[in-house]
Amino acid sequence: MLNTLHIATYNIHKGFSHFKRRMVVHQLRDNLRTLNADIIFLQEVVGHHKGHAARFENWPGRPQHEFLADSVWTDFAYGKNAVYDEGHHGNAILSRYPITRWDNVDVSAHRFESRGMLHCEMAIPGWKEKLHCICVHLGLFKRGQSQQLQALEQHIERLVPQHAPLVIAGDFNDWREMASRILVEQLKLMEVFELTEGRAARSFPAALPLFRLDRIYMRGFQVEKTQVHQGKPWSTISDHAALSARMVRS
């Protein structure tokens, strides 16, 4: 029976370096493979963009989540959130294990920020219950974040069985560290870096992380190891650091 799960989360900045100086999606794919994660939660994933495809000779011919998954992560899901004339982007989850069901829920607080939460159910070999994974990218403003966290809480209470293993990861934009008040105190989840380091990880900006914006919350696991992937080469492919956690099913 499989009982160890390796999780990672990363805001990939639409496949461009900091300040969008370079297209780095090929380097990004190489870096993601070095993580050797079972499941990766991605934010700011481009599903389609006509302008980039015309401008960059080596722009992938497939949506970014498919290009990044390639032959390593056999299952994937993409939640389209922001739609514009040139294309669209959103969240994605890449998985080594079968995704048996997925849904993308619109949690936009206003029309200037299109946000969603991507919810996948996965069949893990030997597990009686499905693993529930939710990828989020919350808004920039306090009021919108509060509404989105309430929507996330209601979604979990309605659709995730109480004893089912659950992982919520992504870019919370949580400058004020509000998320734990709902996810930890009310839903009884734990943030993996709070368990190992005493506080959520510094993840932004990637070159020298100061702000604790990205998180991995879970229940039904014990945490073996956590890591912040910062500095070079990570800081050359996104403005966020990647986070990872190795967890054991409890």
UniProtKB/TrEMBL annotation:
It comes from Nitrosovibrio tenuis. The keyword Nuclease applies. Residues 8-240 form the Endonuclease/exonuclease/phosphatase domain. This is Metal-dependent hydrolase, endonuclease/exonuclease/phosphatase family. One of its GO terms (molecular function) is exonuclease activity. Transmembrane segments: none annotated. The keyword Chloroplast does not apply. One of its GO terms (cellular component) is membrane. Keywords: Endonuclease, Exonuclease, Hydrolase, Nuclease. Coiled coil: none annotated. InterPro entries: Endo/exonu/phosph_ase_sf, Endo/exonuclease/phosphatase, GPI-anchor_lipid_remodeler. GO terms for biological process: GPI anchor biosynthetic process. PANTHER family: CALCOFLUOR WHITE HYPERSENSITIVE PROTEIN PRECURSOR, PGAP2-INTERACTING PROTEIN.
